[in-house]
Structures are given as C-alpha cells and as structure tokens.
Design goal:
132 residues, alpha/beta, 4-stranded parallel beta sheet, 30% helix
C-alpha cells in the first residue's frame, strides 16, 4: 500500500484546526501520515495540535515563507509515495483518499489530482475554488 502524507500548511489557523482537523484525523487509510507545516504561527495553533492530536508530526518553519515557500520547505522534510496538500479549512470524509490513490496507482500517466470542492454552506454546490 503506497505511503500517503497529508501536509497541512498552517499560519495562525487555530480556528480552522479546531473546526476541521477532526475530520482529517478520521481519514481511513492504513499507510498514512499527517503533517502540520507551521509557517511561524504566533497563535496557539501548534500547542493545540500537540495537545489534542499528538500523532500529527509538526514541522516548524522559522519564518512565514508564504504558501508556496512554506510547502516547498516542508515537503523537503516529508517522505511519501503521495503527498496531499490540504488547506486547513477543509472538511473531508473518512474514505476520501483510497479512491484517489487507487486511480493514480492504476494509471501511472496521472501526475496530480484535484478534488471537486463543495461549499460548506450549500453542500449541493461547488465551491468557487479560485475561479476553476
């Protein structure tokens, strides 16, 4: 079973971690790591994760490197067959990873995937998702 690492970039995201991290922790996939890449937060988000989700690996970046810089630096420190870059404000269902990994394993021409994102307030509608 391929190794999957969910990497969540965080900067002062305590509210989102409190609200959405439990759904990520309920992910059902046997070979999974969850990593919080902290972009030099000044709130209590890192302490919250340490106290409530001790199995999450925390990578502390010395300064806020922004979105791309933060992920680039954090991913240098993570080993996996597949990386899931997940925003901290996302709720997932328990079985969300398995079908994606099965698809990518079955078709090696697939290099990246992106989910359909539903609105939290109107779950029958798609999220704007950066004008996609």
């Amino acid at each position: 079973m391929p190794r999957v690492s969910i990497v969540i970039l965080n900067w002062n995201g305590l509210y989102y971690l409190q609200r959405f991290l439990p759904s990520v922790m309920a992910t059902q996939y046997a070979n999974l790591d969850i990593v919080l890449a902290d972009n030099a937060s000044t709130d209590a988000s890192v302490g919250f994760v340490q106290e409530n989700f001790p199995s999450i690996r925390i990578i502390r970046l010395e300064k806020n490197l922004g979105f791309a810089g933060g992920y680039n630096e954090a991913l240098k420190q993570v080993e996996a067959d597949y990386f899931v870059l997940l925003n901290s404000d996302v709720e997932v269902s328990a079985g969300w990873i398995q079908p994606v990994i099965e698809l990518m394993e079955a078709d090696k021409s697939i290099g990246a995937v992106q989910p359909k994102i539903l609105m939290e307030t109107q779950r029958s509608r798609f999220e704007y998702a950066g004008a996609s």
